[in-house]
Amino acid sequence: MKICFVLNDVATEKDGTSNALMQMAHQRGHEVYAMGVGDFNFHHDKPITINSTQLPKDTKTKSTKKFLEALQGPKAIKKQIDCTILDVLFIRNNPTEEEGRQWAEQAGVAFGRMIQQLDVLVLNDAYALSHAFIDKLYFEELPQEIKPASIITRDKDQLLDFWEKQNKKMVLKPLEGSGGQDVYLIDEHEKNVNQIIDHLSSQGYVIAQEFLPAVKDGDVRVLLLNGKVMERDGEKAIIRRVAGDGEFRSNFSLGATADSSELTPEMQRIVDLTAPKLIRDGLFFVGLDIVKDKLIEINVLSPGGMEHFKDIGLSPFTDYIIEAIERKVEYKNMYKGQLSNRTLATMD
User: CATH 3.40.50.20 in the chain, residues?
Assistant: First the structure.
């Protein structure tokens, strides 16, 4: 299998979920390419080409960290490839991390749509990613039963009215953002509520969300593949993120620690109500962030957190994901054009 991973930038990639998946695909003998969102080349008279980075096939590394060092090192092979030689294009770049590079935010998905039209299997489905590009807005298409109360607007009066209705306690965050950046807990003691609203609304739409007291125990990330919780040998791909002292945001990038968690009936209910839409839309690999019985966020562009599985004694699950992709490539070859990319994307 020839598989290319779309990252923000190969040179600045960190040792996280994408890198772990690349290493596993390489270990399983596949031809693995890495690229940044700035490495596409469109030609009017021939297929799109990619400026790729690749490790020699016989490269062996003992850890994901060593794999990344090799990929970013002098022995890595830089090669321009025709996109049509690929079996899979795996879009893993995070647009919300493209500070100062607005041109890069939608490039991965836009070129992914074009490559998908050239009969390359694209994961997640590029048209589904286009639809869910602002994942906090896509989140609002899900059933209200599983979501906290919320409002999305740039109107200060409506945000303040929502705050009053929530007994002067709400969470404010930018509609387009990630990693817990610019996320505020606004309670009755907040003296700068107007300034915070002005700051956030000057950057775009603002989402105000009901505060969930259970967040004090952290949130739980549940990773889904083909609309199902990843599970093997009784282990489930679930990790609790516990915020540090004095912090309500449970982001690993902000110092949260990992803990184990069971899949509760409330979490399973959220999965059951979310999965049909994810499957229909062609979203293969998705992360759900859950607080008790409420879904607070959905991650469709670059779900991660798997690098922390080792901290709680969980299996890496990277081989589980690569095996699933291998099956999709086999189905695609067997059915020869009878199955759409969207169907293949979420087919077990």
Answer: 2-123
